[in-house]
Input
Amino acid sequence: MIQLNPAEIKNQRRLVIVWSITFLIAFPLLIVLGLLMRLNQGEEIKLGIDTFYVLMTLHGLGMAGVLYSMAFAGLWYLISTRYVRLSVATGYVVYFLILAGVTGLAYATLLGKFGAGWYLLYPLPFKGTFWPTWSTGLSIISLTVLGVAWIIGLVHVVYALSKEFGGFTNLLGWQYLGKKEIKRELPPIVMITTISLIPGLIAFLAGAVFLIMNLMQYFEPTLAFDTLLLKNLVFFFGHTLVNITLYCCLGWVYALLPEFTGREWKTNKVLVYSWNATFFFILFAYFHHLYMDFVQPLPFQYAGQIASFSSAIPATAITMFGVITQLYHSKIKWGIVPLMFLLGVAGWAIGGFAAVVDSTIAVNAVLHNTLWVPAHFHTYMLGGVVLFILGFLFYLSHTKEEQEKDKTAKFGFWLFVIGTHSFIATFYSGGLRSIPRRYNDYSGIPIEATHSMGAFLARLALIGIILLLIGLMVMYISILIKLGKKNNTTVIQAAEA
Ligand code: HEM
Output
């Protein structure tokens, strides 16, 4: 633990509150876009094809960006109030750059009608478009600004940690593998942060190369780049971004859950081996997105299969086992924070399992580009990452006693969980019935049974979405009332103790 004075803690707390409020505003707005898409697929409203893809682009990019940014902001706060001083000014630079990037994207999509999806796959974003070229340019520039902000943030955190803990290999926990005595304990959150952010840096650089290529083509339309290379770059970026968002959140579960169970969760050899293996697998699992690309070299397809299966074992198994040993006979009081963490880990496991199923080449031949794909990533993002983030926000705003007693928030929480899994069940069910993903509606499908089942499931999803939105609003009231109050957080108590 570092010793911070109350003013330093206050500044970091103010920064994370700015982040939290931005998240609390952006998140339901992005859900409403999802609701509109499902209403259109259920043939309850008529958005028009163009508007559907505009909403899908903003929803996909917005959700992935906002969740990663909030996951990173939570890590920043915990690290800066416990382990190493981080510059608040740099934190605000990152925040305002991200805000600028998101504003640019919202303008390019909602007003410029940019609708190429987050992947801008060939022949998009330049050929066969229904939007003006300026909105393509603005989107590419806005995404570049986001990438720059994320890179500044993560380099600052990893550099500061590396200085504090005596070098990069120490951050990876390699000192635990030798026979020498450990001079300074490495908190698991520090190791997991490094193992999330370094692949993140590599992925953001790949994303930057992709964006620069697109920008060059924007300014010089006669240029043409290898489309398979572009697809590899963008899926490496997207897949890694989503993975590390989850891992950033897991970092704070390792740090915070022990405060509720009263048991230590320390770094040891097993944890180091498993998280270091994850570091490696994160980088290669993305190949499973390209199974259908027959021109992709065959060894990459095998690498995708092996890395996808392997990536599920070390970090997941070890974390699950860790959570169970934390909780078993621990006399924990089930306040909303540990509940969120437990159900979040469950969401991660269920979605992760569904992802591994889809990464099996033989299964992928059937499930590829069906609603099974949004099913699995909505499970670990909405049923995992979002619960971790909400758990963090309750931790930030409530004292331990308050979060235990807050019955209204718990009611909202259960509504949210039931709504989330009911909504996602309609995606799984659609996937198993070969309903394609990314269709604005299913009326063009010549098989009537598939068309009507797709539309029916989309209408059914509305019940879950409404339930989860009500649950979210109930929790919001509780968080917002407490967030404004001063000096009532467990974190301040812990840091001042
Ligand atoms: C209640 C909340 C949500 C609703 C109602 C919702 C709804 C939808 C719908 C209807 C689609 C289009 C599915 C298709 O036909 O392919 C979609 C796609 C997507 N959603 Fe969500 N979603 C929600 C939450 C989230 C969250 C938390 C994330 C976080 C990453 C997310 C990320 C995405 C992405 C990346 C896509 C794919 C976009 C694309 O293919 O370009 N969504 N969502």
Remarks:
- Residues 31, 34-35, 37-38, 56, 59-60, 63-64, 67, 117-118, 374, 378, 381-382, 386, 423, 437-439, 465, 468 surround protoporphyrin IX containing FE (CB under 6 Å).
